[in-house]
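Hi Y.,

Following your request, here is the sequence exactly as I used it, all 245 residues.
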Amino acid sequence: MSRERIIKQQARESLRGNITALIAGFLALAVMGVIIFDVPVFAAYLLNLVDAESGEVTGDSFLWYLLLEFGALVLAAVFSPLINGFFRLAADTAVKGGCEINSFFYFFSSPRRYFRTLAVNMGLCALYSLLTAPLAIAGRLLGGVLPEPAITAVLVIWQIFVYIFFIHYPLAAYAINDSRPAYYYVFGFIGFSFRCSGALIKLIFSMLGWIALCFFIIPTLYVVPYLAVTLMNSARWLFAMNNKI
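Below is the corresponding structure, written out as tokens. Let me know if you'd prefer a different format.
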């Protein structure tokens, strides 16, 4: 039996009795995302900050639109520890074999833990932006030269690889053990992520059939928790083998 099959089998066994909490956490994240990112867009149209036909910001409304977008980003940062909370649910499921919904709010449990989580998230966000922004800018400059679908595909693939190489393992490690300083999670897993990226990519490819089901709403409620626990299960064994947590 292949390593990927064993990891997925362990994840399915861990999900028994825990799927409800993971679904609830995922739904809470989805609702939060809609409120933070979609409501400001709706408000911009409602307040006539954006032209309904062209979709462009009207000249004298640019500052208000900018403030609206900035407010959405601030809210996303303030509530970002809920993302870590979902990772925590997956970590408890994979490592302990059981999770409770209160783990979703674990990183709000004390001011010190909350602000350290913000530091980790903002550090990883800055690293992600630093690595993806240059290609995004180049894509805009080449917009009239290369086909738009090709540019979009390259950008999406690069963003996925940046997540694999720099973001996934730090978030997983922080969910399992958050006792280290913030800089350890931001910078301490870069080499590890490169060394173990092949295992992560291979596992993701083995689950492409499941991921494809996310085009439909109902299967997503099971697939996302299953994917989260499977990836966390793989990460925790790799961390143990490399003494990273």
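Residues 34 and 40 are 9 Å apart (CA to CA).

Thanks again,
Q.
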